[in-house]
Amino acid sequence: MEIFGSDFILGTFRLSDYGMILASFDMGGSVEDSLGMSRSTVEAFLGDSPVPVYLGEGYTDKLRPQVTFVKNPKMYKGSKMYFSEKECRNIFRTLTGIQGYEWMKVINPEDEDDIWYRGKINDVNVKRVNGMVVGIILMMECDSCLGWSNETKIHLSFLANQPIRIHSNTDDLCHYIYPHVTIKAKNPGTLRLTNHTDNYTTEIKNVKANEEIILDSKHELISSSLVHPLLLNDFNLHWVRLLPDENELSINMDAVISFVYRVPRKAVLL
Asked: What is the helix (H) or strand (E) element at residue 7, kind and residue range?
């Protein structure tokens, strides 16, 4: 799918820094774009039943944007709108030096939300007119069909057993959000952080007073600000998670807790 906007960012590369803008060489008209939201169903036939048992489903495709850019006509005129060999080399050097998925964003002043994607470049092509290069085309691939919000950062002071609500406005209603969480308990003992919405408890034993426990739930990593022998053994391996929409949380001791996370966005990449 071809994308449009006022500017484009991929990692440290920003289109406007090179005096270029997003463009299209299509003639216009109606276009049907795939959003990479194809799904497959997992089913199993049991016994002689002609009706399979539904086991689940998941996405089977990714978002595959096409990014086309030309020189900004407000900055270049006439033959200067063509790319020289040196200019092409400089751009190719920068773009092909980006390895793996990077945060990607199309800037559009009319957008209501600030949505980012994880994208990488699969191929680089050029558009020629009369043998001269007038445009550069990136064939890209995202890590999924999902975009992502800006980081949400929440810093809360919990009183023992007093519930606090956190709202997760994710667009993916079938999966949890796994945040990066820092918990600083004010007293020693066994720490229990419970999400009452789904009755799910994260428990860590032998926590010291003012010890900071850092839980990277997405990557399943746990660490401490203090020496904590057998920390993984003291942890019940229930990584902190947030459900779509409302979450009612409480902890069994006074503590300061920070949550950092992004939520998925199902959007048209304009």
From this structure: strand 7-10
Q: Dump pLDDT digits (tens) for 203-215.
A: 999 999 999 999 9
Same domain, 71 and 190: no
Point out the least confidently predicted range of 53-67, 129-143, 251-265: 53-67
45 and 119 together in one domain: yes
The pair phi, psi for residue 243, each rounded to 5°, is -85, 160
Most confident listed range (123-132, 206-215, 225-234): 206-215
Structure-model confidence comparison of residues 55 and 80, the more confident one: 80
Q: Are residues 256 and 170 in the same domain?
A: yes
| 133 and 196 housed in the same domain | no
The answer to whether the CB of 207 falls within 8 A of the CB of 181 is no
Higher-confidence residue: 117 or 268?
117
Q: Indicate the residue among 147, 173, 200 that finishes a domain.
A: 147
Of 155, 127, 143, 129, the closest CA to residue 63 belongs to 143
Global pTM reads 0.82
Q: Exposure pattern of 161-194 as b/e (b: 16+ CB <10 Å)?
A: eeeeebebebebeeebbbbbbbbbbeeeeebbbb
Q: How far is CA 86 from CA 22, 82, 132, 138, 170, in A?
A: 21, 11, 13, 18, 45
Range of the domain at 178: 151-265
267 vs 270: CA distance, rounded Å: 9
Q: State which of 122, 147, 172 marks the end of a domain.
A: 147
